[in-house]
Amino acid sequence: MKALAVLATMLGLVALLSWNQLDAQREGRAAQSVALNYALYRNEAFRYALGGNGTGGEVSPAALALPTAWKPMREWRTRIEGGRCYVHGPATPTEAGKVRALFRGSYAVGWKADGHLVPSNPDGARIALPAWIADGAVVSVISLD
């Protein structure tokens, strides 16, 4: 009887470990989906801004050449201000990390913390971000000058 109790306990532990591993895989796939969704939006926003279409202010998603089947997974926003184009939106730290990985660690992509884009450039220069971008948001910024 003791052997059956030990076996049942071991099977239960194996099942729990397997379940946690499946949850982690699902979370990783979901974060990757959000990263790809953001990347498509960001690329179209930058294409729009670099095409000289935006003079300033918020850019409506309807103004972007997004595929008709594309649907936002988060509230992505684009704003052109002070010679820069900012693309931002809410994201978990895992999702923001997947975005950076997708853009191969570009220093023009990160998240907002303490009013700056994180991570900072290798030379230590920090890019200040406007107050209208929420802390923790994933952010991409380019200069239009």
Automatic annotation (TrEMBL):
Keywords: Signal. Residues 1-24 form the signal peptide. InterPro entries: IM_PilM, PilM_C-ter, PilM_N-ter. Gene3D superfamilies: PilM protein, C-terminal domain, PilM protein, N-terminal domain. This is Type IV pilus biogenesis protein PilM. It comes from Nitratidesulfovibrio liaohensis. The gene is pilM.
